[in-house]
Amino acid sequence: ASYAAPLILLAQNRQDDRDRVAAEQDRQRAERSLADTEYLAREVAALRQAINETATRDFVRSELRALLEELRAGEDPDEDQPEPARRGPRK
Predict the structure, then answer these.
(1) What are the CA-CA distances from residue 32 to residues 27, 37, 39, 42, 51 (Å)?
(2) In a domain, 90, yes or no
(3) Nearest-angstrom CA–CA distance, 48 and 55
(4) Does any domain span residue 45?
């Protein structure tokens, strides 16, 4: 029994070392995971902001309809100004 005590203590020390290494690896993994999550959250926020700044299909269509109605109604602001006289082909 007296020879077993040092072996048991040695085994316990080795297990403590393995546990310490595993805990350190878990901590590093958790830090990387948190950093990745924060990065992805920033990217999602940037994408949402970019999407909000993009003209929607409905907005573009409504603007095109308004311009088309103006053209059809003859409300073109350039219509009142005479065209410049043509002097022939320029060289």
Answers:
(1) 9, 8, 10, 15, 28
(2) no
(3) 13
(4) yes
Mean per-residue pLDDT, 20-44 = 97
Q: How many domains does the chain have?
A: 1
Mean pLDDT over residues 33-42, rounded? 97
In this prediction, residue 81 carries a pLDDT of 58
At residue 85, what are phi and psi to the nearest 5 degrees? -70, 140
- Domain region containing 52: 9-74
Which band of pLDDT confidence, cut at 50, 70 and 90, is reported for residue 9?
confident
Instruction: Answer whether residue 63 is part of any domain.
Output: yes
Which has more pLDDT, 11 or 43? 43
Specify the length of the chain in residues. Answer: 91
HSE-CB for 33 with a 13 A CA cutoff: 6
